[in-house]
Amino acid sequence: MLRSLRSLRLLSPPLSPPLSPSLSLSPPRRHFSSSPQLPLRHRLAVTAAVTFTVAAGWLYLRHQKEQQQQQRHLRHLRSLSLGQGDFQLQDTSGRTRSKADFLGSWVLLYFGFTHCPDVCPEQLERLSRALELLEAQPGLPPVQPVFVTVDPQRDDVAALRRYLRDFHPRFLGLTGSPGQVREVAARFRVYVSAGPPDSDGDYVVDHSVLTFLLDPDGMFRDCYGSARTAEELARSVRGHMESYRPLSPPVTTA
Questions:
Q1: CA–CA distance from 123 to each of 2, 44, 101, 131, 215 (Å)?
Q2: Residue 192 burial by CB count (10 A; 0-12/13-18/19+): exposed, middle or buried?
Q3: 37 burial level (CB within 10 Å; 0-12, 13-18, 19+)
Q4: Contact at 8 Å (CB) between 110 and 147?
Q5: In the chain, where are the structural domains located?
Q6: Which of 38, 50, 90, 135 has the most CB atoms around its CB within 10 Å?
Q7: Do 107 and 99 contact (CB within 8 A), yes or no?
Q8: Where does Cu cation bind (predicted)?
């Protein structure tokens, strides 16, 4: 029995030495940077400044692209040579008018006739509304609306005066001899064709439904079909006004 106890004592492994009091079983401490962070309002201000800079740059690039597109469009339109050359027509007061009378003014010019059943009244109403929208915007120069008849045989000075009373008060009607009217229409490449008269002698004139914009230099700037709304037309005219640069500087006198 005593021998067995000695054997067990010899076979048992030595006990592990006690842990040193200097060793700790707690997890290691994490060391954080002691550098100060920006206050929240400063971080928000930096973010807003970066966002504003990016947005401003994008808007500038978009504006530059739109300007380039408009200039290309304007060069193309001017290459068509629409509306070039002078003309001689009579207005609703019987006064002879030429293209020189409109230099220095923006002009919206429409070809039509007083016996037109529906298209011409609709277009003149749309033009009148566009003019009202432009007049409501401060700082814009006035626009002179002009109605050129394509039916001079029936549309004399008195007929034009009566007809245009129903539309914008600044509308100016122009008429002349058939040859004079054909010449002006040809300069703007406006198609005109009178149909056969009926039993009452009445007839319809088929013509291009276009409104032409002329700048203060008398140059053709744009044209608008019947699909344009009054709001779109006014917005386009304003854009041309803002991008307009005179061909020659104005002459100033002391």
A1: 129, 52, 24, 12, 21
A2: middle
A3: exposed
A4: yes
A5: 89-243
A6: 90
A7: no
A8: 116, 120, 207
Flag whether 116 is marked binding: yes
Backbone angles phi, psi at 14, to 5 degrees: -70, 145
In degrees to the nearest 10, what's the CA dihedral of 184, 185, 186, 192? Answer: -150
CATH code for the domain defined by 89-243: 3.40.30.10
Q: Over its length of 254 residues, how does the chain's per-residue pLDDT go in tens digits?
A: 545 545 545 555 555 555 555 445 555 565 555 556 667 777 777 888 888 888 888 888 886 776 677 667 666 656 666 778 889 999 999 999 999 999 999 999 999 999 999 999 999 999 999 999 999 999 999 999 999 999 999 999 999 999 999 999 999 999 999 999 999 999 999 999 999 999 888 999 999 999 999 999 999 999 999 999 999 999 999 999 999 988 765 444 44
Q: Does residue 120 have a known ligand-binding role? A: yes
